[in-house]
Amino acid sequence: MKKGEKKKRDRALKKRTARKQALRRPGTTVPSSYHIRQARNYPIDSCWVQRNWDQGGLVVVVVARRQPDGNLVFGSYLVDTYCLGLKNTDSQADIPSGPFRREYLPRAYSQTEPPIDISPALAHEIVYGGIEYAAQWGFRPHSDFMQSQYVLDPPDQHPRTGTVEFGREGKPFYVQGPYDDVDAILRQLTRTAGEGNFHFMIGIGDPPLDWDEDLD
Question: pTM of the entire structure?
Answer without folding.
Answer: 0.81
